[in-house]
Design a protein that fits this description.
400 residues, mainly alpha, two-stranded antiparallel ribbon, globular
Length: 400
């Protein structure tokens, strides 16, 4: 035991020494928290139940609406887009200063995003084909594939905004916010066609992305603008939920008439503004915490493999669920209907099992997150792969 702690302490010190002095570690910390929020949120609000011999998806939020505040904690995508806009704006400015072309810059960034996706799609193409050939119900295969593919929409939107960074980096967030408000008024106030809501997929996430770009320009050097975002966003969200008819849950709920997330609504964007304000306000405490080598090492290592964690966390949960079927079709918190506090307690006990399965996926597939060549200005290999083996870089640890 003491040997393990000694090795971890040595590794943490090595990561700390290898980190460039000027690195803003709070940015990496915010992104790590955003990733963990998405992962834990999916594990807590996604359930697979056996019905008529097939697996079907449901959510405890559909059976226990009073759990809606859970979504306020774990729906952290706005923070991810805030950090993404900040890093992309800084990276593009740095690339221009070094004479790197737009094509080379965007190709490098998008490559880091999509290389790991190919492994997920390839594996699940084989799994889906094997399940169908083995006689699995079509509904079961459809449910599983939906859980795998549904998080990928985020990557498409993030990639589009990244590619558009030179155009949107100096855009005021007021404009996409106005688009979101206009679309919602048209949809819900004047019974406009519901397909117009998909405009908000781009406009809604452009709001925190442009806030991140403004952050890169120094717009939040003082605390007052961030405090305004927090207070104003929280007040607007409360008003929209209490009097505007928007649902309290900030994630989609099966069977609900309106989803705040699919596509994003004005309530979700207002909530994202509050999240961004809070994230910007806690930068200094986070930066101080990240000066501790052991704390920083955990954040740095998660950032190195963030795409692997994001892409494989649903597969990990489904693998545990499928293996559980070999024991029983009625394991509490795993196959049972999420309709009681007992289910919540049982699900919390399954979280470490999901994490262990994710660790297996991480070990098997993190290699796909490695760049083909080290980009100029990227973090040293000792930070990207502190174990001293072949570098295992990800799309998030680098600031390029």
């Amino acid at each position: 035991m003491f040997e393990v702690f000694g090795r971890w302490a040595a590794l943490a010190e090595r990561v700390d020494r290898a980190t460039p002095q000027g690195r803003d570690r709070s940015v990496d910390a915010l992104r790590a928290f955003a990733i963990l929020g998405v992962v834990l949120g999916h594990w807590l609000v996604t359930a697979l139940t056996v019905r008529d011999g097939a697996l079907s998806g449901t959510s405890p939020l559909a059976h226990m609406p009073w759990l809606a505040p859970v979504s306020w904690v774990f729906q952290t995508l706005a923070v991810f887009f805030l950090v993404g806009g900040h890093v992309a704006a800084q990276g593009y400015a740095s690339a221009r200063a070094r004479g790197v072309s737009y094509g080379a810059w965007v190709g490098q960034r998008l490559g880091r995003l999509f290389r790991p996706v190919a492994a997920v799609l390839a594996l699940w193409a084989v799994v889906a084909g094997g399940l169908l050939l083995g006689g699995a119900e079509l509904d079961t295969v459809r449910t599983l594939l939906k859980l795998v593919w549904s998080p990928l929409w985020f990557l498409l939107v993030f990639a589009a905004l990244t590619a558009a960074t030179p155009l949107v980096a100096r855009l005021s967030p007021v404009w996409p916010l106005a688009v979101v408000a206009g679309v919602d008024v048209w949809r819900f106030g004047f019974d406009g066609p519901q397909w117009t809501g998909w405009v908000n997929v781009a406009a809604g996430w452009l709001v925190p992305y442009t806030l991140g770009a403004a952050w890169a320009r120094g717009a939040f050097a003082r605390r007052r603008p961030a405090l305004f975002l927090l207070v104003g966003g929280a007040a607007a969200t409360a008003a929209l939920v209490l009097w505007g008819g928007y649902p309290a849950s900030m994630v989609g709920v099966p069977g609900a008439a309106i989803s705040n997330l699919n596509p994003p609504t004005l309530a979700a964007v207002a909530f994202g503004l509050a999240q961004c304000g809070l994230a910007l306000l806690v930068r200094e405490p986070l930066a101080r915490a990240m000066r501790r080598p052991r704390t920083w090492a955990k954040v740095a290592l998660l950032n190195v493999s963030a795409m692997t964690v994001f892409l494989w966390h649903q597969t990990s949960m489904m693998a545990v669920t499928a293996l559980g079927l070999l024991v029983s079709t009625d394991l509490p918190g795993l196959h049972t209907v999420p309709a009681s506090a007992g289910w919540i307690a049982a699900r919390l006990l399954w979280i470490p099992v999901f994490a262990a399965a994710l660790a297996v996926c991480w070990a098997a597939f993190r290699v796909h997150e490695q760049p083909r060549s080290r980009p100029a200005g990227a973090a040293p290999d000792a930070v990207r792969n502190p174990g001293g083996r072949r570098p295992a870089a990800g799309p998030v640890i680098s600031r390029a």
